[in-house]
Write a structure and sequence with these properties.
The protein is of the alpha/beta class. The protein has two domains: 9-157, Rossmann fold (3-Layer(aba) Sandwich), CATH 3.40.50; 166-428, pyruvate-formate lyase- activating enzyme. It is built from 15 helices and 17 strands. The protein has helices spanning 20-32, 47-57, 75-86, 101-105, 107-111, 124-135, 197-201, 210-222, 248-262, 284-293, 308-313, 320-332, 350-366, 393-404, 412-428, and strands at 9-14, 40-44, 63-69, 94-99, 117-119, 146-149, 155-157, 182-183, 185-186, 206-207, 227-228, 230-231, 267-268, 298-304, 336-343, 369-374, 408-409. The protein has a seven-stranded mixed beta sheet, sandwiched between helices. Helix 8 (210-222) runs parallel beside helix 9 and helix 13 (350-366) packs parallel to helix 14. The longest helix is centred in the C-terminal third of the chain and has 17 residues, at 350-366. The relative contact order is 0.09.
Length: 432
């Protein structure tokens, strides 16, 4: 049993739609350790509401812990928000904490934005220990998983934590009523060079147990929340020891037991938002699991390129033929399909662009929708130092034509603009 000093502490979260699942896990961890009631917790989705909150509560609390989780694409948004905040608050009362994909990959750069603490990688255990230390007025710089700036200006990192057992903590904060998708798998063996997942969470997959998942499904059912979605890097890999092969009996057992809890009126979504599937794992058996046990009428397949050379450069681990076959088989099984492509990947030349265009056209003629992305270099990945560039004009015309026909969608234009900015930033900070 933890003992705490009698301190009035506020925990304020920038609960942005792109980052709320991260905060769900963190506050779920506080609830699991029963220390959430030692602090006042505030959730704010809106920037101005967040600023007003921080201005309004600082006189009521001894310490205010302001928390931000963000992606690299949100870097400048968060920076500007911090600048606004610093002009309107009593800085001495605040501890600014950053976590998530970008701070984990660029901790020093994040601290230089005037954050006090960066939580690197998996945050649950680290966050619990951080809040505990602050509650007890103890130094938190030596907590594993935390990065800080010493008084002499040097960056200090206390070291990496061991990988987390997902069963230890709730996937979301039940008392706060912030329900969402259940994270069932963490870690990915493929280590794609453009993706942070393997480098943040490791290459050995860890699965939340069926008993644990079903426990939270029951809680949701009691609150009439019967749409069940999952967070996982590869929806078909649940239960697999290596994440490369499939464990169909385990995955089916999970789906059957969830269905028993939520009943016929409930809905299970597998392989659709917010997760996807790998093309080589799409087969008659996995598709039949969706048709038999799930409610989604579509799946998301990660293709990324129509060039085998680029797939190999990216360390994808599948062939172009896998993409084509997976889409063909999905449509034959009566399901719709969205296919992710990333344009402007490192090493891409005119021939690669034409191969990708050809594959997109073939897939769209079959009935697939293309989800278009522009390559963004991300810290902690092998492609962090690669230069983002404007997309090929021929490719842009094809994307726009497909979009006009309703056969393509995505924020690729916005991503293209910000990718160049990110590329310059990462090179200036010498992140590798």
């Amino acid at each position: 049993m933890r003992e705490f000093l009698d301190k009035k502490i506020a925990l304020v979260l920038y609960y942005h739609k792109h980052n709320k699942y991260s905060f769900n896990a963190l506050i779920g961890a506080l609830e699991s350790e029963r220390i959430d009631d030692k602090v006042s917790i505030f959730f704010y989705k809106n920037k101005e509401a967040l600023i007003r909150c921080l201005q309004g509560i600082e006189n009521d609390y001894e310490t205010v812990i302001a928390c931000f989780s963000f992606f690299t694409t949100q870097l400048w948004e968060i920076y500007e928000l911090l600048r606004k905040l610093k002009r309107r608050i009593n800085r001495k009362k605040y501890i600014f904490v950053a976590g998530g994909p970008h701070p984990s990959g660029d901790p020093l750069g994040t601290l230089k934005m005037d954050f006090d603490v960066v939580v690197l990688g998996e945050g649950e255990e680290t966050f619990v220990e951080l809040i505990t230390k602050i509650l007890n007025s103890q130094d938190y710089a030596n907590i594993k998983g935390i990065g800080t700036i010493k008084t002499n200006g040097e960056y200090y990192y206390a070291g990496k934590r061991k990988s987390l057992d997902l069963d230890r903590y709730a996937p979301f904060p039940i008392k706060q009523g912030k329900f969402g998708p259940i994270e069932i798998t963490r870690g990915c063996p493929y280590q794609c060079y453009f993706c942070q997942t393997s480098f943040l969470f490791g290459s050995i997959p860890r699965h939340r147990s069926i008993d644990s998942i079903c426990n939270y499904v029951r809680i949701m059912k009691e609150k009439n929340l019967t749409d069940i979605r999952f967070i996982t890097p590869n929806a078909f890999s649940y239960g697999s020891q290596d994440g490369l092969s499939l464990n169909i009996p385990k995955l089916e057992e999970l789906l059957v037991k969830i269905r028993q809890i939520i009943g016929p009126e409930g809905r299970i979504f597998l392989g659709s938002f917010p997760s996807e599937v790998r093309p080589e794992h799409v087969n008659d058996v996995t598709l039949n699991l969706i048709k038999t046990h799930a409610s989604n009428d579509n799946i998301i397949i990660g293709a990324q390129s129509g060039s085998q050379k680029i797939l190999d450069v990216c360390h994808r681990g599948h062939d172009v033929s896998d993409i084509y076959d997976s889409v063909d088989l999905t449509i034959k099984n009566g399901l719709k399909v969205n296919v992710d492509f990333i344009f402007g990947l490192p090493g891409e030349n005119n021939e690669d662009v034409l191969l990708t265009i050809d594959l997109m056209k073939k897939l769209s003629r079959k009935g697939a929708r293309i989800h278009a992305h522009a390559f963004i270099p991300l810290p902690m990945t092998p492609f962090a130092s690669k230069t983002a560039r404007r997309l090929d004009e021929v490719l842009v015309r094809e994307i726009r034509e497909l979009t006009s026909k309703g056969q393509a969608f995505g924020d690729w234009k916005k991503q293209e603009r910000i990718a160049v900015k990110i590329s310059k930033y990462l090179k200036s900070t010498k992140i590798r």
